[in-house]
Amino acid sequence: MKDWAKRTIVGSGLLRMAASVRGPSAAILMYHSVLPDPSLWVDSLGEIAHSELVFRAQMELLAREFHPISLDQAIKHLRSGDDLPRRSVVITFDDGYADNYEFAMPVLNQIGVPATFYVTVDCVENKRLPWPSRLRFAFRNTKLSAWKDSQGKNWSLRSPSEREEAFLSSCDVCCQLSGKAQEDFVARLEQELYAKIPCRQASPMLSYEQMRGLQRKGHIVGSHTMTHPNMAYLKQEEAARELTESKRRLELNLEAPIPHFSYPCPALSPHWSVQTAEQSRAAGYETAVTTDNGITRTGDNPFCLKRIRPTKNVEGLRWNLESAFAGRAV
Ligand SMILES: [Zn+2]
Question: Containing H/E element for 208?
């Protein structure tokens, strides 16, 4: 649909009317990274970063036209069966980038929007980006024009699209690995391609001190696993370790309970299952969010909550939220 048509429909109030018929619900938004200039990081982060300016404008929109609430507030309503406040929006961040503290938190605090930050514990502790960023960087920056994968398949790396294809194929393999096996896979690939993200003094990930700073401002810290695997493709004991060990380390270092979990969604689909939902409950979590697209309603299973990806502009976000609340797929 054309932008002018979307603006006309939003302006007409038709979607709001439909939403009032659908009843109360909450939209859980999924952010990753907020940077002054995301284009500088595109070789590692890809397209997941929002510019600081757009992020601020989106938070102002939420404060003006919607009802930002914390994840804990939303869960309280889900659990009690009480209706969620109308047009409730919950802000979440995946992965645990240091920019969440540096650039997103000041905006959130200033506008008065609470947020939840799901961190990848092994990346935080080893001060390195999650593996998809490291692989993306290696394939985009290698000087090689061809590469042979571990199955013996030859890949041409001459054009950007060929590099992307080789990158995506290695993601399909890597997302099924966790822990040391995953680190060995990534390190070997960085070596074979002679391309590794340069070490900087400042960690690209949140520190525990920064996480405590987020908590002091009333934000929530949750787990996004230890090593960012696709949980649905792991052996049961490996998945259990990702759930319990990340929770244990966060609780130890933050001296607070960690009841919230977020499933990573790298490469293959699905990224969660009935079994992983049950495992997250057994590990002691109270909620788990997925990257499945949609809105949350009273009565939903708290271990597979849907989320909405925020667009990279304000109007797109307004349209997606209005449509979602009206019960339309976004
Ligand atoms: Zn993630």
Answer: helix 208-216
Mean pLDDT of 162-188: 97
- Distance from the CA of 175 to the center of ligand 1, in angstroms? 11
DSSP per residue over 1-42, as a string?
A: --HHHHHHHHHHTHHHHHHHHH---EEEEEE-EEES-GGGGH
Burial 290-317 (b: 16+ CB within 10 A, else e): bbeebbbbbeeebbbbbbbebbeeeebb
How far away, in angstroms, is 58 Cα from ligand 1 center?
Answer: 21
> What is the Å distance from ligand 1's center to 264 Cα?
4
Answer yes or no: pTM beyond 0.85. yes
Mean pLDDT of the 237-252 span = 98
Question: Ligand 1 center to residue 90 CA distance, Å?
Answer: 17
| CA–centroid distance, residue 95 to ligand 1 (Å) | 5
Ligand 1 centroid to Cα of residue 300, in Å, is 23
Q: Give the count of beta carbons closer than 10 Å to the beta carbon of residue 14.
A: 13
pLDDT at 105: 98
Q: Which pLDDT tens digit goes with each residue over 258-313?
A: 999 999 998 999 999 999 999 999 999 999 999 999 999 888 899 999 999 999 99
Give residue 94 CA to ligand 1 midpoint distance, Å.
5
β-strand pairing of 154-156 with 146-148 = antiparallel
Q: How far is the CA of 298 from the centre of ligand 1 (A)?
A: 26
Q: 242 near 226, Cβ under 8 Å?
A: yes
Q: Transcribe 75-137 into DSSP letters.
A: HHHHHH-PPPPTTEEEEEE-S-BTHIIIIIHHHHHHHT--EEEEE-HHHHHHT---HHHHHHH
pLDDT in tens, 311-328: 999 999 999 999 998 887
What's the confidence (pLDDT) of residue 208? 98
Confidence of residue 51 (pLDDT cuts 50, 70, 90): very high
